[in-house]
Design goal:
The chain has about 240 residues and is α/β, with parallel strands linked by helices. About 30% of the residues lie in helices and about 15% in strands. A six-stranded parallel sheet has the order 2-1-5-6-7-8. Strands 3-4 form a two-stranded antiparallel sheet. The chain has a two-stranded parallel sheet with strand order 9-10. The radius of gyration is 22 Å and the shape is globular.
């Protein structure tokens, strides 16, 4: 049984697996996969997760990919020097791959252990995702609610609850409020990506059904451009009817 120790097994595996290990006791490489260079919520999480692991002296890297496929960030889009360095530090076969994208894409992950960091607001998962998610070595979630939804939807792989952190020093206390071009006294405020599953179409339908231009109310929608976002077109359609 003495043969089956870490050193012997690792030496054997090195002959068959192309990894970036240089020695037995080297730190396992951790690759954070997803968008990371812009203001998208998942990008903020991915780059700060990588930076936090980097501060803990872990061997971490960033890999640019989305729900539709891999990509190369536009020139000049990576503002932070250290983030740029972590993106260039890309191991061919990471020990841990942790992917945070939407929709979840798992079949092309090539880590020794493949995990996703998964956020979800609804009460059930699409059934077409179940088999792919169960093929993972684990799923990281921010709350027990998401964990329960996964289990109730048929997920049987390992699930770990890891709450998202808050960097209080990043909040700007002295920023002036944005100027809103309205004199309405009562404001409704919506913040979101505009993804179809967020229900912005339901919000606009309910708002225009309940209120008219004569009412002393205004709906403010804070969002950002992305391939799923057609809020401007939806609002224009409601204004024309």
């Amino acid at each position: 049984m003495e043969f089956f120790n870490k050193k012997n097994i690792s030496e054997i595996l090195k002959n068959y697996i192309d990894t970036d290990f240089k020695e037995i006791n080297s730190k396992p490489s951790i690759r954070i996969e997803g968008t990371f260079e812009d203001s998208y919520s998942l990008s903020i999480i991915n780059r700060n997760l990588a930076l936090a692991l980097d501060k803990l002296d872990q061997d971490v890297s960033l890999f640019a990919t989305t729900g539709t496929g891999d990509y190369i960030p536009q020139k000049g889009s990576i503002k932070d020097k250290r983030v740029r360095e972590l993106w260039k530090n890309d191991p061919k076969f990471p020990f841990f791959s942790i992917r945070n994208i939407y929709p979840p894409r798992t079949k092309d992950m090539n880590g020794r252990y493949n995990l996703i960091y998964f956020f979800w607001e609804e009460s059930a998962l699409p059934q077409e995702w179940i088999d792919d998610l169960n093929s993972l070595d684990g799923i990281l979630v921010p709350t027990n609610f998401v964990k329960d939804v996964l289990i109730n939807s048929g997920i049987n792989t390992r699930i770990g609850v890891i709450p998202t952190g808050v960097q209080i020093d990043h909040f700007e206390k002295d920023v002036l409020p944005a100027e809103l071009h309205t004199n309405k006294k009562f404001l409704f405020f919506n913040v979101g990506s505009g993804f179809p599953r967020k229900g912005i179409d339901v919000l606009l339908k309910a708002y225009t059904k309940e209120f008219s231009r004569e009412d002393d109310v205004c709906l403010v929608v804070k969002t950002f451009p992305n391939i799923h976002n057609n809020i401007a077109e939806q609002i224009k359609k409601h204004c024309e009817t």
